[in-house]
């Protein structure tokens, strides 16, 4: 990734998957731009940026088209080689109650932030990726299987994975590759919002072919592969990094 510029969206703290990916990209020589969505996390992201060798920090609220356009307009004249989209959100009450009880507003919010934001970001970023490049987003097994308490987020991730395929098809002629990583459960701040999350970790550790849960570094290395020339032939795919748990039938 030497000489490559990558935007990483979704760095929240040292335990976030996005931060792990950012570390791996810096290790491989990439220059980073980090985005934050809310003013309350700006200071934390700036602190993390210093630890990442002085990555630049920018405001970008992916729920607002003007904010997305404003951020990418700052990059005019600068070559962009990659995007890491590690953004998802659902109201906690929509994760705590049955999926059948999901309200219209909560459904719309989860789909907007977790899935549509990838479309909006790709649309704004594509004109800057003049030499091609890669876009990587983060998904989970709940997109294709029923995972207890994942609820509306599973539906949002299903929409995200479908968006990856359509974007890959349309952006392929520009040599822009779009992929998702379906990561196994990892102890992040957002994961703790899922009720009984610890039992999911125990299940994976006991039954996955590798008999262990997923490590953030494994996801990060896969993201580097997909963003780098090593992954130049891969697009429109969902790559599982979950110790093999997804292959199990029962």
Q: Key terms for this structure?
A:
seven-stranded parallel sheet; 8 helices; alpha/beta; 250 residues; Rossmann fold
Structural class: alpha/beta
Terminal CA distance reads 40 Å
Could you tell me the mean pLDDT?
Answer: 94
Query: What Rg do the Cα atoms give?
Result: 17 Å
Across the major sheet, the strand order is: 3-2-1-4-5-6-7
The number of domains: 1
What is the share of helical residues? 40-55%
Give start-end ranges of low-pLDDT stretches: none
Strand percentage? 15-25%
CATH topology: Rossmann fold
The helix tally amounts to 8
The shape, in one word, is globular
CATH superfamily: NAD(P)-binding Rossmann-like Domain
Which CATH C-level class is it? Alpha Beta
Could you describe the 3D structure shown?
- Helix 1 links the parallel strand 1 and strand 2.
- The mean pLDDT is 94.
- This protein starts with a strand and ends in a 9-residue tail after the last strand.
- The protein is globular, with a radius of gyration of 17 Å.
- Strands 3-2-1-4-5-6-7 form a seven-stranded parallel β-sheet, with helices on both faces.
- The chain has a single domain, classed as NAD(P)-binding Rossmann-like Domain (Rossmann fold).
- Helix 1 packs across helix 8 and helix 3 runs parallel beside helix 5.
- It is α/β, with parallel strands linked by helices.
- 40% of the residues lie in helices and 15% in strands.
Q: What's the short story on this structure?
A:
By secondary structure, the chain is α/β, with parallel strands linked by helices. The protein has one domain: NAD(P)-binding Rossmann-like Domain (Rossmann fold), CATH 3.40.50. Helix content is 40%, strand content 15%.
């Amino acid at each position: 990734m030497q000489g490559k510029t990558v935007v990483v969206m979704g760095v929240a703290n040292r335990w976030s998957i996005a931060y792990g990916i950012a570390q791996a990209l810096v290790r491989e020589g990439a220059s980073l731009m980090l985005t934050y969505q809310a003013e309350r996390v700006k200071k934390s992201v700036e602190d993390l940026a210093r630890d990442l060798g002085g990555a630049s920090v920018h405001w970008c609220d992916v729920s607002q088209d003007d904010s997305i356009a404003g951020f990418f307009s700052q990059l005019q004249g600068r070559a962009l080689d990659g995007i890491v989209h590690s953004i998802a959100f659902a109201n906690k009450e929509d994760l705590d109650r049955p999926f059948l009880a999901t309200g219209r507003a909560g459904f719309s919010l989860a789909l907007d932030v977790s899935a549509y934001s990838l479309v909006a970001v790709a649309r704004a970023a594509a004109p800057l990726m003049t030499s091609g490049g890669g876009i990587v987003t983060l998904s989970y097994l709940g997109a294709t299987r029923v995972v207890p308490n994942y609820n509306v987020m599973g539906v949002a991730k299903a929409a995200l994975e479908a968006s990856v395929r359509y974007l890959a098809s349309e952006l392929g002629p520009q040599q822009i590759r779009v992929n998702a990583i379906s990561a196994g459960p990892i102890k992040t701040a957002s994961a703790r919002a899922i009720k009984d999350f610890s039992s999911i970790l125990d299940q994976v550790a006991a039954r996955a072919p590798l008999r262990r849960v997923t490590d953030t570094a494994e996801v990060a290395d896969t993201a580097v592969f997909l963003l780098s020339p090593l992954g130049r032939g891969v697009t429109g795919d969902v790559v599982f990094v979950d110790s093999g748990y997804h292959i199990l039938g029962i």
